[in-house]
């Protein structure tokens, strides 16, 4: 029986909880033959009974695991690009039979893509905060004059009216936080922690 790498296991869990891990185990152990969603369901149930595990995949049902739950999980994997299927119409019943296989080799690429997306979002937010980063004089608060970074820089961060220092607005901490976050994501190696 083949197992899942810790990284893959964690990712499957995030996608669809314990059921997704069970489905992943079935997919990786049927690499050489496409497997139907019905077979996956039956295999998981069999394993649970054999291993005498106390699991509760269906809290509102007496059935240990429903075909519908497995189907939903498979579609979750499919939408995360970790699984693929083809369907064939059963000539006798007219129903479609779905054959599934995994695309776990894509994991690295998928995670890199996710990392990039998060990083881009943080960068966009940082740019917004920096463009809306204003300085004002506490002494001349009533005039409500605000200077952007370039203006404040030109003024040597001194109020042109009274000479007091210009103080940055509240988003200074947020900008600092965003910058740190971006650096830590850039330096993070998601694979190192799990695979070694
Ligand atoms: Zn002033």
Describe the structure.
The mean pLDDT is 89. The chain is of the alpha+beta class and 196 residues long. The strands form 2 sheets. Strands 1-3-2 form a 3-stranded antiparallel β-sheet. The longest helix is centred in the middle third of the chain and has 25 residues, at 107-131. The protein has 2 domains: 6-102, Orthogonal Bundle (Arc Repressor Mutant, subunit A), CATH 1.10.10.10; 109-195, no CATH class. Strand 2 and strand 3 (96-102) form a beta hairpin. Helix 1 (6-28) crosses helix 3 (67-79) and helix 4 runs antiparallel to helix 6. The chain is built from 7 helices and 6 strands. The chain has helices at residues 6-28, 37-50, 67-79, 107-131, 149-154, 172-187, 190-195; strands spanning 35-36, 83-89, 96-102, 134-137, 147-148, 166-168. The protein binds zinc ion. The site of zinc ion (ZN) has 7 residues, from loops. The site of zinc ion has 7 residues, from loops.
Helix-and-strand structural type: alpha+beta
Assign the CATH architecture of the largest domain.
Orthogonal Bundle
Q: How far do the termini sit from each other?
A: 22 Å
What is the residue-averaged pLDDT? Answer: 89
Beta-strand segment tally: 6
Q: Which overall shape is indicated by the principal axes computed on the Cα atoms?
A: elongated
- Proportion in β-strands: 5-15%
> What quaternary form is this?
single chain
């Amino acid at each position: 029986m083949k197992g899942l790498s810790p990284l893959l296991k964690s990712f499957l869990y995030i996608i669809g909880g314990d059921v997704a891990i069970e489905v992943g185990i079935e997919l990786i152990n049927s690499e050489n033959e496409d497997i139907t969603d019905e077979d996956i369901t039956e295999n998981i149930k069999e394993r649970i009974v054999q291993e005498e595990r106390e699991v509760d995949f269906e809290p509102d049902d007496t059935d240990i695991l429903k075909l519908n739950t497995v189907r939903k999980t498979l579609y979750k994997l499919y939408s995360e690009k970790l699984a693929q299927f083809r369907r064939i119409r059963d000539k006798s019943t007219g129903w479609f039979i779905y054959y599934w296989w995994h695309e776990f080799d894509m994991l690295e690429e998928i995670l890199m893509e996710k990392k990039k997306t998060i990083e881009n979002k943080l960068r966009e937010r940082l740019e917004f905060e920096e463009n809306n980063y204003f300085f004002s004089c506490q002494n001349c608060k009533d005039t409500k004059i605000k200077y952007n970074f370039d203006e404040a820089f030109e003024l040597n961060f001194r109020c042109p009216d009274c000479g007091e220092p210009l103080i940055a607005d509240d988003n200074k901490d947020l900008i600092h936080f965003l910058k740190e976050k971006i650096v830590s994501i850039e330096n993070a190696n998601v694979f190192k922690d799990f695979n070694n």
